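Archive entry. Fields below.
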Amino acid sequence: MQRHQYDVVIVGAGGAGMRAALESSKRTRTAVLTKLYPTRSHTGAAQGGMCAALANVEEDNWEWHTFDTVKGGDFLVDQDAAEVMCREAVDAVLDLEKMGLPFNRTAEGKIDQRFFGGHTRNHGEAVVRRSCFAADRTGHMILQTLYQQCIKQNVEFFNEFYVLDLLMVDGRSTGVVAYELATGELHIFSAKSVVFASGGFGKVFRTTSNAHTLTGDGMGIVWRKGLPLEDMEFFQFHPTGLAGLGVLLSEAARGEGGILRNKDNERFMERYAPTVKDLAPRDMVARAMANEVREGRGCGPDGAYVMLDLTHLEPAHIDAKLPDITEFARTYLGVEPYTEQIPVFPTAHYAMGGIPTNVKGEALASNDDVIPGLYAAGEVACVSVHGANRLGTNSLLDINVFGRRAGIAAAEYAETAVFEEFPDAPEKFVVDLVEGLRNATGDERVAAIRADLQATMDLNAQVYRTEGSLKQALVDIETLKERFSRVAVQDKGKRFNTDLLEAVELGFLIDLAEVLVVSALARKESRGGHFREDYDKRDDVNFMRHTMAYRELDADGNVNIRLDYKPVVQTRYKPMERKY
Amino acid sequence: MDVKVKILRYNPEVVDEAEWKTYSVTLQPTDRVLDALHKIKWDQDGTLTFRRSCAHGVCGSDAMRINGRNRLACKTLIKDLNPEKEITVEPIKGLPVLKDLVVDMEPFFDAYRSVMPFLVTSGHEPTRERIQSQADRDRFDDTTKCILCAACTTSCPVFWSDGQYFGPQAIVGAHRFIFDSRDEGTEQRLEILNDKEGVWRCRTTFNCTDACPRGIEVTKAIQEVKRALIFRRV
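PREDICTED_STRUCTURE:
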């Protein structure tokens, strides 16, 4: 076992982690730990753009962007946080450009901007060109640019180091324990500040745009410490996943003029969102698509999907603006988007919920109390700027604005804090976890349990939910927990044991699926990404509040999930009916 | 359909030499090689080890040698491989194998880091964005697509035979900045590439261009860098 000491330890090297590292490492000694290589992070899969009211191509201002974010989030957004994000968006984009990000350009050589779902001028009047982009690989460019800046700044990375525990002394964060994949060795990192930037947990679902590695590790670690998770019932289903596969096709396809059609070739979004049509927010489009399929207007032999139509766009325009996603359609479905419509269906995409933080990126132990030395940013966190439904492009914005803020706050805290003494054997929890799984002799396999978990979540906790479906999911999860207690791995070695890694990841997924379902059962209303068929209206009287879930042990040592609530911060926008 | 997949296995904890093992897997023609590897790992042999993440060709984790050619396992469909015959899978060449299909990526990333792959500017920063024409932006568009998967570098015979050569990817990484009108580090970067282990080792074999899963014209980019060195002008 090795010991290390850094002022700031950042867990995760996607957009939020590296943006935090660029700030923190300028100020104080910083290490970035990632279970992958930085450039493998899923920020790189983001496509369509990053919104900021630059007003490069038409009139725009950040207040309109704030309004759209609040309305898009079905008024569950903390409005003070949305204001911070949208105001700082302009500098966040300009910072990236100065770091070298190759944005597409206007004829005058400025950063080009395009339409995106839910982004409007003057509070919903019409769609507005707000998304700054680099073809349909904006996330790739952000990830590469941030990594390049980290190279320039000599940021210290520990690649393929899997963080498995957060160390705390008297309610303060004091470091992490990591498992080195290459060797199987444990490393204890003593740190004054710890920043979680480890992404989401889309792998609780079968149909997902998320990478295999997005297993909610950061949320899971914090959860097991008895710290809260906020708004976990809100999961975004992106309308246009490649049918059957879930591979993401950017909303930019519709921003550039793409149209969704049902089996009658009808542009059905005209019925659901007469003003902005195909560019309504994702929750509304995903529900509309699922509804078309349920009512028998789906396409294909089983009527299981709808079509994304780009055939009226010029091939040259498609090549210039949407090269990657059209290649996905060709590679994986054998469809030629110049001449054929592309089969699409909603795919699990983004967790609106996560580790609760304030606008500085400080993690919270309750509604108001900050955990000294602990920070979170990006998808792992819940600020909450996305509320019940995130607008497209606002995640790339979130990681840049709040990654930066968390990096600054973590470094500033480290300048005044001291290193804490650890209690004896700080690695004990991780040793028990890892060696327990390595030496287990049960008859269950990780892949079988994971497949069953994903199947019940797709069936029972997806776009449409009911009390019955959610209760079924809970029953299934209970069974899966029991089966997981009998899981065994086949690889018993130390070196690159990815069999063991997948077992640990599955443990986090099961925990988080349960939090999601328990939170969803209690929210007896429909809001944003959470739609209950048995309570199909938004209920501001009873549910205009964030869910705060806590893991607690009862007297017999059984795990219980306790739900509490937190008020939504409202500043200038009063809740109104959400029409587009 | 039943497909035979022959994989070069190596775990230094257990054996001294790599050895081929053949697995029989039931697959759809539209499945990816990554699906085949997952089926083997999940249903037959949990010790099979490989890297992967996004599973749709953007993260660059799963470059490997499939039927003798460097490709991404997640972007290679079974039907495109003549699945009547055995499909062979082995680690990319020229980097030390750590276990099965996992190689040591550090030498590869070291080469990338050595070419100053970041924007270099001087003077005061503008308050707004730097202006760049669409034509100037287009000049380096191709090389911005690189996902650092190492398929090009580990397909290069010069790289295999000579541990010192930067390899095609590092030159692609440099090209992306050399031809960016906003950048002022070109002189330094060209000096690094003018080194005896730099661009002049390239023998224009075109393996790299064939191997690139992103369709980057790697050899062309290398030729453009050579020309920039000869004429000292980009």
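CURATOR_NOTE: Residues 428-536 of chain A form a domain with the Methane Monooxygenase Hydroxylase; Chain G, domain 1 fold (CATH 1.20.58.100).
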